[in-house]
């Protein structure tokens, strides 16, 4: 059975073109990567295993994660084999924030959030066919690892001088609070994830946000040192509005994918309020509309069309992906009724 759910969860999606790398570039999804020509050739060839990790630091994913979920889906549509990793172990630690230590949540809380995130991941991937998706939890290989094994087998491959140069670490070292060894170790654990997936599943590509680039490169470097092989990674850009403000936040609160944390109406309204200067970029990143369709909306926006058709299509597509068509239609009716 396809765990992904009904087809409506990927409203408007179509088969990605033969070279999915070119499509990702056109959609503005590549900010940083390992060798671009090698990646382009890799993704144009036979199916490869790739993964993206999601830490359970809250009971739901948010719009920042949606960029990664849809990127994974695009690669799967091109024939590649996705692995969604939920960080049952890394979620107990958390990657370093720029200013202060993260609050450590209980093991029971993190385990509960792991299950919720797994359910959300399953909505965006297909679990049928030759390139069916897998969902894994990194607690499976970190829980049995002793402190001595961790230090001898993994820690020995890392150099402190390199680790402290990572942006997230260096900014914390320069702060009054500093950084704990716990958060300092996060990049090693993420590197271990890539190594284990490479060994177990033949994974050769990791995707993530560009702000995680240091952590992504931790895995490529570890595999090169331990296995003597080259693997790849690419980072998607941090999505910001045209005025430079961080995307996906509303008065300091994330736009969650869970309907109980952000109603379908509020979700739809968020996209409907997209500025003209941002809407075409959002259509490229957050929908599966074709290039000709998006170019038509781009032309309409350029002529200052008053009906905001691009925003309405954006809101419809993304809300349907996340909440389904029934919830989307209800949100549309509510907005229509309130405008009378």
TrEMBL record:
CDD domains per record: TyrRS_core
Taxonomy, superkingdom: Bacteria
Nucleotide-binding keyword on record: yes
Record InterPro entries: aa-tRNA-synth_I_CS, aa-tRNA-synth_Ic, Rossmann-like_a/b/a_fold, Tyr-tRNA-ligase, Tyr-tRNA-ligase_bac-type
Reactions accelerated catalytically: tRNA(Tyr) + L-tyrosine + ATP = L-tyrosyl-tRNA(Tyr) + AMP + diphosphate + H(+)
Alphabetical keyword list: Aminoacyl-tRNA synthetase, ATP-binding, Ligase, Nucleotide-binding, Protein biosynthesis
Listed GO MF terms: tyrosine-tRNA ligase activity
Enzyme Commission number: 6.1.1.1
Family indicated by similarity: Belongs to the class-I aminoacyl-tRNA synthetase family.
Record's protein name: Tyrosine--tRNA ligase
Organism of derivation: Microbacterium foliorum
């Amino acid at each position: 059975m396809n765990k992904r759910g009904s087809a409506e969860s990927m409203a408007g999606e179509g088969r990605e073109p033969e070279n999915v790398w070119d499509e990702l570039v056109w959609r503005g999804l590549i900010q940083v990567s390992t060798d671009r020509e090698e990646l382009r050739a890799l993704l144009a060839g036979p199916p490869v295993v790739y993964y993206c990790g999601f830490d359970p630091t809250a009971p739901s994913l948010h719009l920042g994660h949606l960029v990664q979920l849809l990127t994974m889906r695009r690669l799967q549509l091109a024939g590649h084999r996705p692995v969604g990793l939920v960080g049952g172990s890394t979620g107990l630690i958390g990657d370093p924030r720029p200013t202060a230590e993260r609050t450590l949540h209980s093991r029971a809380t993190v385990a509960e959030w792991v299950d919720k995130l797994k359910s959300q991941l399953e909505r965006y991937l297909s679990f049928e066919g030759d390139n069916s998706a897998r969902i894994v939890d990194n607690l499976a290989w970190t829980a049995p690892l002793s402190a001595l094994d961790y230090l001898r087998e993994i820690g020995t491959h890392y150099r402190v001088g390199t680790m402290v140069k990572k942006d997230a670490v260096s900014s914390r070292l320069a702060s009054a609070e500093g950084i704990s060894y716990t958060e300092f170790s996060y990049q090693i654990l993420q590197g271990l994830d890539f190594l284990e997936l490479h060994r177990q599943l033949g994974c050769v590509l990791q995707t993530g946000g560009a702000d995680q680039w240091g952590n992504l490169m931790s895995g490529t470097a570890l595999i090169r040192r331990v296995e003597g092989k080259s693997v790849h990674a690419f980072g998607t850009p941090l999505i910001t509005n045209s005025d430079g403000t961080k995307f996906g936040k509303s008065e300091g609160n994330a736009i969650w994918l869970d309907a109980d944390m952000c109603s379908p109406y509020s979700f739809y309204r968020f996209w409907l309020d997209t500025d003209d200067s941002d809407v075409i970029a959002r259509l490229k990143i957050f929908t599966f509309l074709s290039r000709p369709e998006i170019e038509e909306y781009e032309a309409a926006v350029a002529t200052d069309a008053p009906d905001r058709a691009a925003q309405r299509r954006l809101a419809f597509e993304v809300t349907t992906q996340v909440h389904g068509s029934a919830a989307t239609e209800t949100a549309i009716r509510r907005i229509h009724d309130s405008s009378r």
